[in-house]
Amino acid sequence: MRKSVSQTYFLTIATVILFGLFSMGILQIGMSIHYFTNERRQALSTALDIMEVQAQYYADAGPDHQAAVQSDALGQQLELINSTTQNMLMIANSDGLIVRSAGYEEHMNDAHLTQAVMQRLDGGEDVYGRDDLGGLLDQKYYILARRMNVGDSHFYLLACMRSSTINEYVGDMFSSFILSAGLTLLLSSVLSIVLTNRITQPLHDIGEAARRFGGGDFSARVAPSGDDEITSLAQTFNSMAVNLESIDKSRSQFMGNLAHELRTPMTSVKGFVDGMLDGTIPPDMQNHYLQLVSEETGRLARLIQNMLDLSKLESGEYQVNARMFNIWDTLTGVALSAEQRINDGMIEIEGLTMDEKVLVYADPDLIHQVAYNLLDNAIKFTPAGGTIRFSVSAERIEGLTMAIISGQGISPEALPYVFERFYKEDRSRGLHARGSGLGLNICKVLVNLAGGQIRVESQQGEWCRFVFTLPTCSPNPGGMKRLPDAAGQPGAVEDPASMKPVN
User: Fold this and answer.
1) Strands across the sheet containing 98-102
2) What is the mean pLDDT of the segment spanning 202-224?
3) For residue 136, what is the DSSP state?
4) 3-class SS at 483?
5) Which range has the worst mean pLDDT, 390-394, 452-456, 494-498?
6) What's this model's pTM, rounded to 2 decimal places?
7) Which residues sit opposite 387 in a β-bridge?
8) Hey, which CATH number is domain 221-317, 1.10.287.130, 1.10.340.30, 3.30.70.1400, 2.60.40.150?
């Protein structure tokens, strides 16, 4: 079963809390036992010191040390010490025989310490531990024992405490710990649930927006709140959604424009052919309409070729083969290829120099296509008797500027859109509507791919000038140089794969 983020987060927090409580409990119990043990040893040591002072006093009172230690007077003192400290007290003679005791219910007659205990005590240091004195006691006690020397003889002093007291202490502490740990875990669980919901709710919102977006609702957005990584994720999602929505709109518009551009000539061709087949068009007019059919099929062929060119550029299949070449050779070749159309339109060509040599660093095929598309566009929009003027300027330090000036100008409203796909300033004019609306878009992509920039300037009703720049030297190894615009600022370049401006 798949776990949600909230479940995983809660289980993680709960595990950390439980581990922390367990570690803290173990540490606390260990420290408490250590403290209790030391405290008990100190208490037994205090009782043993008092007992030693009393035994030494009575032993020094007369010549018979043994009799003095076994006296009832000392026994009373031991009982008094026992009642005060709640510790069991014992005195054994040099043979290990218990001669006096206080606080132990069992009969101590003929009770002896083991040789092992006496050997340890004979070392001259106090012996502390948990023992039953070799079975002498009914259970294991915490025992502090000491050897006391009196004249030529010696005795063994023992102070004992039942070990059950520490077990009761640890039990009480453990019960208190379990209660406090349970309350802590409960409060921590509630707090972790609240925090988990605060953290995961934005993720749920992002997931819901993603599901809506995947279902076709491109307006889905996430309302970011806060200043953390999840907010950054929400902002990134919104940015992605905006871009994808824009791409979808562009795609839909592109497909609509493409369908329109294909449908118009196909409808014309079908109408002309049907008219000739059913006799609507008389035989003496068929050659004229066949000429129109040829023009429309040529338009379809150009449109398909332009689409293939765009597809190749977008897929990154085109390989730029840049080299140094004379730009005038390219411009002259393009002008000569369109000579018949120029003559038919009674258009004058100015500024075309065949003898001058100006070198640029670019792909000749790319620049040939750019020049062809720009000249083709200029011929379409230049009226009879008009002029198309070529201009090449090498004033820029980093490159060369070329301009093609022609036509009657473009309206200020249309200038920002002339490089968009399928854009036509006026679809109602038949001459202008002959184009595919892709030529200038391809020009922009090709110029940028060649390492240059292209822009359009116009005075409506008077002239239109397309200006593009190209490098005059080999670019850096990292890629082609992007030349500055007219203001001297580096402009955005076109990514041929995405057709989107990039920095």
Assistant:
1) 98-102, 88-92, 153-162, 141-150, 127-131
2) 79
3) T
4) coil
5) 494-498
6) 0.44
7) 348
8) 1.10.287.130
Does the pLDDT of residue 499 top 60, yes or no? no
Fill in the DSSP letter of residue 294: H
What are the start and end residues of each CATH 3.30.565.10 domain in the chain?
319-502
Class of 5-167 in CATH: alpha beta
Q: CA 398 to CA 391: how far, in whole Å?
A: 18
Distance CA 398, CA 400 (A): 7
CB 344 within 8 A of CB 379: no
The sign of the dihedral angle between the CA atoms of 250, 256, 261, 266 is: positive
pLDDT of residue 435: 53
Higher per-residue pLDDT: 492 or 26: 26
Q: Assign residue 428 a region: left if phi > 0, alpha if psi is -120 to 50, beta otherwise?
A: alpha
Which secondary structure element, helix H or strand E, spans residue 109, and what is its range?
none
Counting runs of H as helices and runs of E as strands, what totals does the chain give? 11, 14
Angstrom distance (rounded) from CA 367 to CA 325: 10
Buried b (16+ CB within 10 A) or exposed e, 457-491: ebeeeebbbbbbbbbbeeeeeeebbbbbeeeeeeb
Extract the tokens encoding 463: 């002239």
Tens digits of residue pLDDT in 96-148: 888 888 876 555 667 888 788 888 888 777 888 888 877 778 778 888 888 88
- Homologous superfamily of the 319-502 domain (CATH): Histidine kinase-like ATPase, C-terminal domain (3.30.565.10)
Count CB-CB contacts under 10 A for residue 130. 13
Cα separation, 86 vs 238, in Å, equals 77
CATH 3.30.450.20 in the chain, residues? 5-167
Task: Specify the domain boundaries for CATH 1.10.287.130 within the chain.
Answer: 221-317
